[in-house]
Amino acid sequence: MPGQQVPDAPRADEPPAHHSRTREEPTPHTSREPAPGAPAARPARAAAAWPAVPLLAALALWGYAVRHTDVSALDDYGLVGALHPAFWAGLAVLTAGFWFTVRDPRRRSRWPLAHVLGLLVMERATQALLYPTPLYAWAWKHDAVVDHLLTSGGLQDAARLGDMAVYDQWPGFFAAQAALVRLLGVDNAAMYMAWWPLVSSVLLLLPLLLIYRTFTTDRRLIWTAVWLFCVANWVGQDYFSPQSVAFALHLGVLAVVLRRYSSRTSASSGPSGPSGPDGPKGLDGPDGRGGVRQGQAVWAVLLSLLVVAVVVSHQLTPGMLVVTLLALALTRRHRDWLPLVTTVVIFLAWCLTAALPFLSAAMPDMIRSVGDVGANVETGYGTTPTGAGAVAMSWAARLLSGSVLLLALAGVLRQRVLRRRAFPLLLLAAAPLPMFVASSYGSEMIFRVLMFMLPGAAFFAAAALLPGVRASAAEAADAAARNTERPSGPSRRRFGLPSFSPPSFSPPPFSLPSPPRLRYGVWLAPLVLLAGTLAFVPSYSGKDRINYFPPREVALVQRLFDQAPDGSLVVAANRNYPLAYEQYWRVDHYWFLDDDRRHVDEIVRDPAGVLARDMAAVDAPARAYFLLTQGQTANSEMNGQLNEAQLRHVRESVAGSPRFERVAENSAGVLYVLKPAS
């Protein structure tokens, strides 16, 4: 345009810059550019590698803490009360190193990635190293399901398995684990499931990065969001479970949809579209429309495979995926109905075939729970934290989640550019909320909703901690193009009148200097990040007294199943002990604290008499066993079921009854068998 100068444009008689030197010509070294290996280059390399210092220091402190932590006598504060102080120092050093590394634009993304991996190791591998047996009763249950598939060689129905047949109706995770057990040549999944939280957490990184990179190129924002996601994901669904894999697949589907199925993807004109320098790459191939159709077919197949893997592995995740895709499809940017229709069709097809037996039995209760929000979010009897330690750990988790959600709200209000650019992530955070209306999911719906909200919430929470996030490269190119097209001469008003600028006013020559501003905000963000990182430990590991089963307890329960004949019955206070579902296809279980409260009160009044009556229906040669272990006691006390005195009364009553015979006993529990009636 006339009067406009384009910077850095070569003259007509000047060759392009990339032809100014051939590739065979070596670049001579001048005094400003020292040769590789010269003394001046060594400080530069040392400065580039300084982020390794806090990372290695943190891991060294962590290793020292693991070696000097004793978990033989956990109290109501779980692992928090047992950890060596060096562990907390290591977390602080790691968080500080991450913060100053991610804010330095000269650092490559490999250093933030290394710090995030270090965080996951400290968060998720500590328990695997400290405890000689896997944590969490439900992980042992899933190991039993894998063992059943390996033993039976196929799926079975409710006539054979009863309530446990539901796992054979969603067998994806268990079939894959059975294949993995055979591939590794181990006896069972318990050989590696203690490390599953670390593995499943690492699996989440790739889809998270793909989702966040769809909406910003600001590496500070991307990696801070990933860090916050890791420290706020305390719900514990990363253990050996179908949910851990289904959640990663859920994020994978969303990454494909957000990057490939968008109204902007089809519009490949202009730098602001996904075919530009930022955002998802377009599907255009060398053969024009044929390449587009071929690329769309490939991504449709990938999307279908991911959805099938989700649907055959878990009950709840497909529902969460449907409501999220529906929310995205209602927006103009992602008004492609193919992902939603594909998911709904596959989900319904599975529900009407393989999962129909379970759904037919459960549908009346599911329908009654719709709309009952109060009952869907309440914890119910026996799950209320009791005692100073349990209450403190519970509040740490609530405050951590509440703080992240409040930070996310602040990020939405503060970052106007992201509010517009990353609106789909707002939908990802809000879409799970209607599930409160749908079901209680065994009193766990509130935890699952928090987990599915977290990817979107962590992104905006990270935006609240950063002073000013950049727009994407595509939007920056749009802004540069608009500035380039603007005339450089005097601006004209609509009616052609020349514009003028008001005179500028100079400050008075003897004005007093303003007092220096205290930059509290510089330290506020890293302190918040550190507080959240430290709060993860009590939120995630504060109930390890419940979830950890020492080897003595495992050996006691294993002895029971080694001698129990087919058709036997195991009676226990609750299901919080290892191997609780061992050989469930031939041994029945009864947990009396799951029964009606009036019957529980009867057992407390006359434990031996009522339990003997309940166990008497077992016919020989089957036997009826009563099992009371350390894990049951911890769960009952900390969750407000029966207190220590009541449990001691139950044990003493059974021990003193002539109807029961003691089979085995150690410091972790006791096993009795009901004598045959004379």
Structure notes:
- With 678 residues, the protein is mainly α.
- The chain contains 32 helices and 5 strands.
- It has helices spanning 41-48, 52-67, 85-102, 110-124, 126-130, 137-152, 158-161, 166-169, 172-184, 196-203, 205-213, 219-232, 242-260, 263-266, 289-311, 317-329, 338-351, 356-369, 373-377, 388-414, 416-421, 423-430, 435-438, 445-465, 473-485, 520-541, 544-547, 551-563, 597-605, 607-615, 630-638, 644-655; strands at residues 569-572, 588-591, 624-629, 660-666, 669-674.
- Helix 2 (52-67) packs parallel to helix 4 (110-124) and helix 11 packs parallel to helix 13 (242-260).
- The radius of gyration is 31 Å and the shape is globular.
Quote the average pLDDT. Answer: 80
DSSP helix count?
Answer: 32
What's the β-strand tally? 5
The global form is globular
Largest sheet: 5 strands, mixed
Which bin fits the share of residues in helices? 55-70%
Structural class from helices and strands? mainly alpha
Distance between the termini: 108 Å
The percent range for strand residues is: under 5%
* Low-pLDDT stretches: 1-34, 263-287, 476-518
Radius of gyration: 31 Å
Strand order of the largest sheet: 2-1-3-5-4
